[in-house]
Here is the input.
Amino acid sequence: MSVIDSPQIIAREVETPPGLFRRLIRQRQAKVGIGLAAAVVLLALLGPLLLPWATGYTSTEFAGRPFQPDGMLGTDNLGRDVLSRFLGGGLRLLMYAALATLLGMALGVLVGMTAAYRGGRVDGIIMRSNDVLLALPQLVFALLAITVLGPQGWVLVTVIGITHAPRIARVTRSATVNVITEDFIRAAEMYAVPKWKILVQDVLPNITGPLMVELGLRMTYSIGAVASLSFLGLGMQPPTADWGLMINENRIALVVQPWGVLLPVLAIAVLTVGTNLITDSLARAAANSNTGASK
Amino acid sequence: MSSPVREDTMTTTPVLSVEGLKVATASGEEILHGVSFELRPGKILALVGESGSGKTTAGLACLGHFRQGLVHTAGSVQLAGAGQAGNLLDLPESQRRKLRGGAISYVPQDPALSLNPAMRIGDQILEVLQIQGYGSSDADRRARTAEVLAEVGLKNDPAYQRRYPHQLSGGQQQRVGIAMAFACRPAVMVLDEPTTGLDVTTQALVLQTIAQLADRHRVAGLYITHDLAVVAKVADDVAVMLSGEVVEQGPTDQVLYRPQHDYTRKLLAAVPDLAGRRQIGRVTAITGAQAVVPDPAGRPSPEVPEGREGRNLLEVADLQLAYGSNQVLAGISFSLRQGESMMLLGESGSGKTTLSRCIAGLNDDYSGRVCLDSEELAAGTRARTTEQRRRVQYVFQSPFSSLNPRRTICESVEVPLLMTGRMGRKERRRRVREALDQVRLGESYLDRRPRDLSGGERQRAAIARALVNAPSLLVCDEVTSALDVSVQASIIDLLRSLQHESGMSMLFVTHNIALARHISQRMAVLQSGRIVELGSTDEVLDNARHSYTRELLANVPAL
Amino acid sequence: MTSIILRRLATSVLILLAVSVLVFVATLLLPGDPAQAILGQQATPERLAALREQMNLNDPAWQRYLSWLGGLLTGDFGVSAASGGPVADLLGERIAASLVLLTAASIISIPAGLLVGTYSALRHGHTGDHVVTGTSLVLAALPEFVIGIALVTLFSTTVFPILPSVTMAPPGEAVWNYPLQLVLPVMTLVLMVTPYIARMMRATMLEVLDSGYVEMARLKGVPERQVILRHALPHALSPVAQVVAIQLAWMAGGVVVVEFLFRYPGIGQALVDAVANRDVQVVQALSILVAAVYIVVNLLADAVGILTNPKLRTGGAR
Here is the structure.
């Protein structure tokens, strides 16, 4: 008998599936999401550069009397130009949210991978500490920290990052556990490949799917959290121009001066919906890839 | 199964006939290209094929069921005696549903996944009877539940019926599945690989049950399988499937012993054979008459009686390992000579994988000694020297899991080289290419990723990784159990040739006793963490001393 | 089974203790002197010393922790720095008011989420499913205040001015005497939580419907209705219970924003005021309270998991 599966006879089983990113942007939903998010991000990035020449005012300058239809979109509770404050108010929100997300990802991925890979007592201690942090809702934890440390920027970023970390660690851990039970990790162990190298070469590339999804999800939540804190008056402090704070300042006059509330609400809504659409598409793209392919 | 009393196969009318059945995926790719076969009362037709041949799709079509994403495009399934004699596939879903579980029933491949884990087994059987309106009262149906459990050889007291699936063993679960299928006394039963995953003794029991039911109650059976030895044991007729087509069909004797189609011949030639009469692959079986290992001078050495010549390469002494109260290995001792191939046989749970991992250093929880060339090896690979790590190599069971999907074959295969020596990139690549040549994979595989390779090719790449550093001992852990039988043959063939060429020793761990004469000169039988039988392959197979080995030998199906 | 439950219970108590340590330690980081904070800048040194003595500020930290913990257990939550009164008096009515809000929102959103999710899974790939997944995807992305403001704009100010946008019960009267004022806050919470439950229910149902035992039930000839009710739904309950628990706990956080937005006199509003005033005792008490709610709800979810899984219920003996 000749060898049935000899390389010459076997036809290619499947076409090589395209990478995660290609599968992502193939989806219409992802394109819409990227479009929405990009529009708001551009607005937030370029907005401050347009001031004051586009509107005639900086974002903190007084333009006239409160709640008057002066300028393009009127004035706010202290008589500042609403459009100027809107243009200037997105950058900081975006920056804080991005930093908090990155901090959370760095902490969570590190802790989650360590827990899964070390196993045993280290895993137990890490996961129990996680449970303790998870018992406090994100916002309550943030408020506790702000009470003690005050509403500075670094406090916001750190505390939101820290509250993300246990949730990210959980996802990372379960993704890592799925990968490290695969035999190729055992093979690397067998050849005494250094542990950090196993984590970087063999584990990390195989959990990028769930991690990207987590990144998107946490970004959405970070934006919500930073904006919510400012909205409560406990995040960004006056006279800073900020979308969350604008809503706080102007909501008493929703009827007289709707733009002061509606513009930032719309911008935040479009941004978070955009990031969530991207995240959902990412999840679909990652689910199709079957990276840890066991039979 | 054979029923010599009734040889009137040709005269009985078929109870179910499938005609020109075509099934395609939703995207239009055809899976079945016009499949036809007939089932007769009291007879079992085996539908044989390798993975991806479409045999399960054809089996499910008999019940008018198509998995998500599959559509029926042409052909008919005629079921006689179901009231309306006509095409089952033309009936509306509600009427097909009424036939299922009643006139025609299904036994799934994996009972652990197919029984509802949150429902008592008695209730699961009772459910079919209620739906089909069996008997006239609930008492009738309860009586039938108890009766059918007895018919498949299970206990049937109320306490047993109140058990949940997880409280049963795999074999018992499968028999509950059969009881459920048989409860309403169907005319046709479709059995989808019902013994895959069971050990040979349980498999023999389940096969016997199926044969008895078919024979006694004149049920027509469609037995879907990839295992030709099982076919020989259970089927009256055989249909061989290859990529969506039936290529050969006929009585079992004719198809298995006088095959007409090339594919059937190839398939049959690949089936390992306990007696070692047939050769699988290019290399003939190892029997008492011939030895495999050439002596250092290069001419084939005669079978060397133990202890007279050849130094021991590997010695294992009193290896013990326990997890809590579970004694996985209870004092294992054996030795392996230079250039020798030894089979380590055991069923799931016998501790064979644990043992092989202790030797390879993947498990460091053991007590006892593992020595290589009389030098004790530390527990765990990281504690061993580079040279020791180089000399003992291990091949994993599943090639779908043992290669990192994100790295190229070259990157995966060169890992041992990276970890043992200072070699330049070019040199490493050259060595990897040589190793790939050894396993009959060409240079073109260097930069491919595992997903572009078939199962057999992946396993070859994994073997290349073990060979790249020229080991003295190769530990192969169930390396063929995830592969189709023809691929298994080629891998066995490859390992034999490699061992021949390099003179390394090999420990071949498996649950498949039929492979013994094809791969090993000596064998050890492992049961619950103990070696119950140890000797040359011929000794063990011809004069088994332990009752467990004898039971295994008695139950292994053969062609 | 009881041993599993007892172990979970013990773990929960331990976690709660750890949270209390965390919360207490946070206050140690507070710059300045709590006594000074209560009495203000003009306080005389004698009065400060007296108050310090009264608040045991001179004792070592672990002693203060123990007495604080003892107080929590006996219902003594300490003294509010802002109002000077006992925290317990301050919060009593507010807890009740928040509970009304949370209960109403749970009663609506849990069944709604389960139904919508199941419907969506059963209509997998059809228009109904697309509408549900699309809507829930958008709603799940939005922060609470965005949903709240959208509702206010729609139903209170501009489009249909039919519902009150702020809660204004006269002091001393219970909030539930003005049900119309509850509509918008409850609706916000429901819209915030339902999409998550629905999405999880859908995903779990899809997974269960794809399982071997559901296919087997169909191949046994079980009618579709019975397949879903008997073979699919019970297996979906346990994972969904976990998500419901997380959502309820999250609602306890989200309620802060919603109460602030609608000026609803509950614990959320109290928390925001306390943070603004740096009223540590109140923040501590509320943090512990919220953590306790989270833990209790999670225990309930675990209980659902144990009850729907015979393997755990029977101890997994073979």
